[in-house]
Automatic annotation (TrEMBL):
Keywords attached to this entry: Ubl conjugation pathway
Taxonomic lineage: Eukaryota, Metazoa, Chordata, Craniata, Vertebrata
PANTHER family in the cross-refs: MITOCHONDRIAL ATP SYNTHASE COUPLING FACTOR B
F-box domain residues: 9-44
Source organism (scientific name): Anthoscopus minutus (Southern penduline-tit)
Identification of the protein by name: FXL22 protein
Amino acid sequence: MHITQLNWECLLHLFSFLDKNSRKNLAKTCRKLLEVFQDPLLWCLLNFHSPVELKKDNFLLGPALKYLSICWYSERVKVCNIEDWMKNSFQKDFCKRHENTVSDFLLDVCNRCPNLLSLTLSGCGHITDDCILQLLKNCPNLMSLKLENCVRITDHTLEAVTLHGASLRTLHVDFCRNITQAGLQRVREKCPSVMLRAEKSANMIPDSKPEKKLMLQKASRKLVQL
């Protein structure tokens, strides 16, 4: 029995066990398998492990997408999390090559995936408040937003949650150093039904001008010594 003789439900089930590259390669073998690859039901969940994967032509974006995760745990993440004024020329060049990759992808998600229910971003150091704001506006059904080690996220994202996160039930802003206790408290007051977690975020040294940053670091060291 040839694989193409299986019914549509069986083929979808078979594709569901494959990673994105394997799905794409199988779809190249014949027209019927290409049609299975293009079935929206196959693409309700997407996981990415680096910005490079976002540029590959091995997945589909559409209204069927419900769960999206972009988690980058490479050592290179540390470079993206360095403040701009501290980066050397090599580090700046490295960041410039993918600075807008995740943001551009999420803007595409805003336009094409209005039924998104869950978004997880980890190590996405170039994601900004404006990007999250657009996503909250365009994906009104979003129930879970988890941000980890996204250094450009500030209290403006928390304010956007209070204004546009009507469906939100879970909010994580872990290791986001530019989040403040005041911003977190506003979310607690205005959105009491949201399960809020902010591990380390408001206790980290926030970005600031070089001189102020140095003063904060020295003060922090003294507190540790005491």
